[in-house]
Amino acid sequence: MNSGDTAWVLTASALVLLMTIPGLAFFYGGLVRRKNVLSILMQCFIIVCVISLQWVLFGYSLAFGPDFHGIIGTLEWAGLAGVGAAPNSNYAATIPHSAFMIFQAMFAIITVSLITGSYVERIKFSSFLVFSLAWATLVYDPVAHWVWGGGWLAQMGVLDFAGGIVVHITAGVSALAVALVIGARRGFGTDPMEPHNIPTTVMGAALLWFGWFGFNAGSALAANGIAANAFVTTNTSAAAAATTWMLLSWRDRAPSALGIVTGAVAGLAAITPAAGFVTPLAAVPIGVVAAIAGYYAIILIRGSGRVDDSLDVLACHGIGSTWGVLATGIFASIGAAGL
């Protein structure tokens, strides 16, 4: 084992937790109406608690346990049986297996939290708890196994450095599904539903950007050059996307703080699958295209009047990261060959 790698992965785990509380909680909390702020804060906080327990009891085993026909992990590691201080060479040879487990737990937590932005302001707390547990078990855990746990996508050679497919596409597509199934908020399309506190949202976006360094660079699972490269590409893509979003909104009306931070989040989502595989220069077009796609997707979705994706989860995370996954196949040049 390597003490430096272990220290970095544990630090990165804490950074990813910071993305959920307080990062995402503040980001979403400022975007909702004043009467719903406490609701979204409570949802983000309790997700950390509930999914942490699910992950220890059986979620980690389903996602990363011994493979069952490329579809799901077995329950051999339920309750973290056999997951201790010794490394697991299938995932990370230089850190404790338990360190890898808790790092991945933070990914499960924030993915469930991201979806709340699609149905915020219109779900009972009991229904929210049932949905969150069911979604983590039936969607997140199998997809994580497909891509990272040796499942059928991993066997095909799919590249997803830090969760473009596992985190952002699953969250974005599921956000659309939930919004379609439960319908729009009362007054959607007629009543004003403006964000109540943009400064809180900006603070949340800054914390997300900060935590994302652990999200992406930590996925190297070592304190090495790949982690450093992922750190730089993450920052570059976010900067390119935020600048592009600012220019797009400036052309249409005037640049806004909300637009700039939304662009940054879209750029962060887009670089996630590619962070360790591409150069910093390649991160620039990845961020630029993510901003353009996300900007016009929001206009299209809101203009349709048929989908109430309250906080634009599909546009920012689903569409942005879909482009990022495709861009990985175009620009990959580190540890993998793109076009």
Keywords:
1% strand; 2 strands; mainly alpha; 11 helices; 339 residues; two-stranded antiparallel ribbon; single chain
Structure description:
The chain has eleven helices and two strands, in the order H-H-E-E-H-H-H-H-H-H-H-H-H. Helix 8 packs antiparallel against helix 9 and helix 10 packs antiparallel against helix 11. The two termini are 36 Å apart. The mean pLDDT is 95. With 339 residues, it is mainly α. It has helices at residues 3-31, 37-64, 97-119, 125-148, 152-156, 164-182, 198-217, 225-252, 257-271, 280-304, 313-331; strands spanning 67-68, 72-73. A hairpin with a 3-residue loop joins strand 1 (67-68) and strand 2 (72-73). A two-stranded antiparallel ribbon has the order 1-2.
Q: Strand share of the residues?
A: under 5%
Q: Number of helical segments? A: 11
Low-confidence stretches: none
Q: Which radius of gyration do the C-alpha atoms yield?
A: 19 Å
Spatial ordering of strands, largest sheet: 1-2
Residue share in helices? Answer: 55-70%
Mean pLDDT: 95
Taking the sheet with the most strands, its summary is: 2 strands, antiparallel
- H/E element order: HHEEHHHHHHHHH
Number of β-strand runs: 2
For the termini, the CA-CA separation is 36 Å
Counting helices, strands and paired strands, the structural category is mainly alpha
